[in-house]
Amino acid sequence: MNVLSKIGDFPDDIDPVWAGDGSHLPEWFVSALKVPREEGYVEIDGARTHYFRWGDRKKPKVLMTHGFLSHARCFAFIAPFLAEDYDVVAFDLAGMGDTEMRGQADPAARGGEFGEIAEALDLFTDGHKPTIIAHSFGAGAALTAVTLSPDAFSGVVICDLMVMRAELLEQYWNHRRSSPGSGDPDKPNRLYASYEEARKRYVLSPPQQVGEPFLLDYMAYHSMRRDGDGWTWKFSPEVFRRSNKSDEWLTIGHRLVNAPGRKIIVHGGKSQLFTRDSADYIRELGGGDIPIIAVPEARHHLMLDQPLAFLTALRSILSLWEAQAHPRCA
After folding, report:
1. Could you read off the pLDDT of 209-266 as tens digits, one per residue?
2. Separation of alpha carbons 324 and 321, rounded Å
3. What is the pTM of this model?
4. Distance between CA 252 and CA 248 in Å, rounded?
5. Residue 268, Cα to own-chain centre: how many angstroms?
6. CA nearest 17: which of 258, 149, 194?
């Protein structure tokens, strides 16, 4: 594994195609995107893995990733607020965002991606143990990561991972489940004649309105790429060539409780995928010592609903864990 490039010639996040003149964008968002960051690729198993990095290399390490078919920019307006106190990396999972697909997208491979990117970017140097912050599908992969390598990471913040009792999960699948994308690894991504046509096809899973619509526009734009005169999705259809057995989700609560190390759950107070009953279920499974924090008025995509409240929760968790790791004498 070696770094292919670091500071590169990358397009501005605030592009007129999605943002117009940008006058409607709040100052906190614009300021966050102005915080210095490194953007680049590392080569892992012959494939380019895309990442962002903020902060001081000497500070405690934080490793962030996203949900299914999403990308690291879901944290690009969150991570800058952590940059003063942490060395923060957000990366695109294989086959999503600007990361190339590699190998098989089975659970073990997904879990291994955390250690691979951390090693490639020297996050383990001098005995550092990164804290993982991961959303949804990425949080499931993070549980695999800490289970496979229990001594490599200092803890995991699990953000709105789908956890339900078996009977509720089966009801959700039967009546309300809406999987993103075609689900067909052999079906090429569709080419749209215009950005506007493609944008109409960008929807969240599960479907929801968002508290900050401009953030949905931002995420949608960076989920697409130009292809000749048209637009298509960045993700590779190969991400659907994966195991998605019901047993993997029926046992996710047990996996969460039994995963080694420090764990905290952050979820949307109005989430469909992690509810108050999900919290009760985790406690019944033996996870009574796992703190569970609900972000008010947020749904599953809590960084798009209540970004600053979500950020406050993350800052509080990291500060608490850091204080526990390095207590100060009076």
Report:
1. 999 999 999 999 999 999 999 999 999 999 988 755 567 788 999 999 999 999 999 9
2. 5
3. 0.94
4. 6
5. 15
6. 194
